[in-house]
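Extended Data, record Radical SAM protein
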Amino acid sequence: MNSPELLVIILTTSCNLSCRYCYLDCSSSGETMAEEVLYTALSGLKEAPREVIISGGEPTLVPESLETALRLVRKRFPRVRLSLQSNGTLFDSRLVQILRKYRVGLGLSLDGPPEVNESLRGESRAVVSSLKLLSREAYPCGITITLTDKSVSFLPETVLFLAQFEAVRSLGLDLLRLAGRATREELPRPEALKKGLKGLKQALAWLKARGRSLSLREKRPRTSRSYCPAARGRSLVLTPSGEIYPCASLVGRREYLLGEAGKGLSPRRLTSSCEGCPREEDCPGRCPSRFILSPQGGALECLLRGELVSGLDAPKRYFKETVHAGQSVISL
């Protein structure tokens, strides 16, 4: 098996949440990867990937399998960039110690202030508890925000809420993918997306002026190649059954199946149809899978990148901060 730039390991399709728009349609009765499947896949890679991401489902639901996976990856590729993507509901000090032991980067999901996130994902109190724990343990994390018709309206509040947790260092914006349980009606409207991104930029600038900086994953410079390894045929996603796809968004779509662990693969580039775009020289490109799943979603991603490509605007209004019950409360 040729070595990818990015290897995503879907450790389990079991999950303790029922997110309205889960693109893998995960449930509490999913499948967990056997150690032999992962060992076979890792052994077949000729060179180390640039990055390995362990995701799910919810990988912290299977802590023994998670620790085994971390150990196998570190043993095979000691210096690889290794990270975990989690919903952040099941963290404790022991898990933090394991992540520290194996030098694991951490990404959590939160799609709005607690009351908004609760209606979209659930278990918001548990996520907040994990953020407090990570802050006490001085263990940094990034937050991924899924952009939907509801969450985009709360982007400024989400940024300001997350800024109170020292562990949070970066933000990522993940436009809804029309797969699994997601529906077209949950895609954000263009004007709402533009308004939400404007508020997000103002919130980030307001925080920066006060000494609290959060980096934005989507604000990346243009390089000679697309930011997406799948667009270069250099991304592999390993499922619990051992099947391999070019992107997690396309898992289960048999026309995109590349092969199985331990067997030959048929590499495939995913095209994003960016040729001829007037922003092509500045933009790092868009997600090809999102465009495959929905041209409307692909167009929204172009809008997102267009809004962010020119840099963060200076704030045109100020956020008034008050203190209530020992917590930061932001009023707009």
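Summary. Residues 311-332 have pLDDT under 50 and may be disordered.
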